[in-house]
Q: What sequence folds into this?
């Protein structure tokens, strides 16, 4: 099979979760792809980003030799040379490696050449925001209704940005929430709903970044702003279907929180929340504009 065909096959197989859980299938496919390339003719950035996304979706960490080979294709480039989507895929893959529970895997980037480590740090610290997928109308209405319900509660923070780590739809006390529309699930819809591979990995990554202190320190080696991310108890998800099937009176209970208004009435101005973006503290509104 031609190299580009192997890449397309890898992408489709990991999107549909057809590879083995241990990652042997993915590593074998990547090994065959790497064997077809030479340093003088690396794969284009688009195809490299596709491989990185496939590794992320399948939860596969490459051996050091393969990881060094793959990064050698992208490390000579500046972050500005990547498209918005390519940069997001690269960041998420790097964070995925740094978030591994096994110390040997988590430290693999520290064993890369210095120029590759410098490149990784530059990618994470670049201020370009991550790509957010298009939002269908059902998701937009769902999130708007949740916002309307919680907007005056001083314990709720809306739209928390985490720089290269992505975003949270809301934070209620010590718990983060992701508000998921139809685009987050495999079709046809099943009961219970089944998340697409990318969304499963997104939840895993946010849990590691925001609920594990060791992961934060690992990421901080390349992105110091990680130490300013909130340390949370959990990251939960709420689907548009759960919301629609719940009566308006019972919906606050879905967030596991008793909503309240601040003394003196609704919130009228934004406050500061120390969420890092590009290594800096970011200004985060407590209400949607």
A:
């Amino acid at each position: 099979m031609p190299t580009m065909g192997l890449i397309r096959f890898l992408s489709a197989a990991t999107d549909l979760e057809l590879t083995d859980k241990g990652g042997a299938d993915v590593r074998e496919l990547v090994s065959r792809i790497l064997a077809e390339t030479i340093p003088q003719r690396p794969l284009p950035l688009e195809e490299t980003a596709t491989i990185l996304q496939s590794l992320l979706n399948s939860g596969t960490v490459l051996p050091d030799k393969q990881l060094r080979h793959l990064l050698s294709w992208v490390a000579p480039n500046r972050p500005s040379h990547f498209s918005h989507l390519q940069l997001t895929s690269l960041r998420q893959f790097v964070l995925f490696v740094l978030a591994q529970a096994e110390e040997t895997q988590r430290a693999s980037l520290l064993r890369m050449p210095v120029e590759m480590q410098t490149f990784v740090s530059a990618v994470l610290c670049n201020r370009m925001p991550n790509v957010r997928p298009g939002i269908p109308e059902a998701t937009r209405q769902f999130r708007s209704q949740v916002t309307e319900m919680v907007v005056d509660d001083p314990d709720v923070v809306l739209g928390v940005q985490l720089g290269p780590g992505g975003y949270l739809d809301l934070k209620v006390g010590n718990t983060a929430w992701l508000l998921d529309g139809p685009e987050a699930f495999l079709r046809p819809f099943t009961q219970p709903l089944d998340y697409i591979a990318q969304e499963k990995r997104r939840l895993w990554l946010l849990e590691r970044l925001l609920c594990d202190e060791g992961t934060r320190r690992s990421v901080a080696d390349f992105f110091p702003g990680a130490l300013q991310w909130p340390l949370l108890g959990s990251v939960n998800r709420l689907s548009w279907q759960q919301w629609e099937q719940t009566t308006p009176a019972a919906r606050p209970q879905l967030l596991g929180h008793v909503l309240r208004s601040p003394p003196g009435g609704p919130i009228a101005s934004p406050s500061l929340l120390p969420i890092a973006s590009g290594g800096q503290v970011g200004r985060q509104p407590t209400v949607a504009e």
